[in-house]
Amino acid sequence: MKLQCAEYLLDLSTPKVMGILNVTPDSFSDGGQFTNIDAAIAHAQQLIDDGADIIDIGGESTRPGATPVPLETELQRVIPVIQALAKCGVALSIDTYKPAVMQAAIKAGVHMVNDVFALQQPGAIEAVQDSAVGLCLMHMQGTPQTMQLQPQYQDVVQEVRQFLQQRVSQLSAAGIAKQRIAIDPGFGFGKKTQHNLTLLKQLAQIRFDNLPILAGLSRKSILGQLAGGDPSQRLYASLAASVLAVSHGANIVRVHDVKATVEALKVTAALLQKDEG
Ligand code: 7PJ
After folding, report:
1. Fewer beta carbons under 10 A from the terminal one: N or C of the chain?
2. Residues marked as catalytic
3. pLDDT attached to residue 35
4. Is residue 135 lining ligand 1, measured as CB closer than 6 Å?
């Protein structure tokens, strides 16, 4: 299985690690814009040294209840970081749902667009159509402002899968190659603990057209509910979640703690290899 991300063709015969790079004031809280950008670049270098295959750059938090950031602010945060990292040797992803940010990020050299709204905003498909960047389509019920208030499903696995299938059909109709697409059930995005657990248990069931699955569970509140602890204290629970996600079919995991995850997934991958002889 392969995923095309512009000039990178990611080989997913072993699991890949996407390192999270937040370029938001709340993640680098000590001051002005340059501090944030310099801190972000230094953090990216650490993620690369730790073995990340993809760096996911985000300038707007989509955590439950987070307020949207103006377009200009998001651009000022992420574009200088993309420009500085464009030739760093690993694939760069932009975590955004805004078509204008997608376009600017592609121009600045990004290799993948990771959209929690699955390219549903007007103009989003057009923003990525004429490029070769990879695309991560994520399922969400509701919007970040309201999604955790009242999540409801008849059959969470079927509903997530059907939504993603519809999105992929739309992209195919726009002439976008399947080789560019990964799908993501959107853990924590309009899901209660039981919905998240069902999706993790039955992760393999959301796959269609042999598309790669990306899973993001790192430090999420479901792990706090199961194991306790503030987000910064969820490393062990996050490792368990990444290992289980890969065991259940995930091809890429999106994580904060890259070094630990890379090591844990080496063990996982060895167990998933087909036996020889
Ligand atoms: C995800 C994401 C995820 C993808 C965030 C957080 C919330 N993108 N962006 N999948 N989560 N594709 O990291 O807690 O699960 S932001």
Report:
1. C
2. 220, 254
3. 65
4. no
Cα 66 versus chain centre, distance: 17
User: Per-residue pLDDT averaged across 208-226, rounded?
Assistant: 97
Question: Could you give the 3-state DSSP secondary structure of residue 165?
Answer: helix
The DSSP code for 230 is -
Q: Residue whose CA is closest, atom 7 of ligand 1?
A: 63
Residue nearest to atom 10 of ligand 1 (CA): 216
Beta carbon of 59 within 6 Å of any ligand 1 atom: no
Per-residue pLDDT, averaged over 172-198, amounts to 98
Closest residue to atom 3 of ligand 1, CA basis: 216
Residue 256 clears pLDDT 60, i.e. is over it:
yes
Q: If you measure from the C-alpha of residue 268 to the centroid of ligand 1, how many angstroms do you get, rounded to a whole number? A: 22
Predicted structure pTM score:
0.96
Range name among 26-40, 189-203, 231-245, 246-260 with the lowest pLDDT average: 26-40
Q: Which of 26, 116, 189, 217 to probe ligand 1 with, by most ligand atoms within 8 A of CB?
A: 116
Question: CA quadruple 85, 87, 93, 99: dihedral positive or negative?
Answer: positive
d(CA 166, CA 65): 27
Here the tokens at position 26 are 């709340």
Question: How would DSSP label each residue in 31-43?
Answer: S-HHHHHHHHHHH
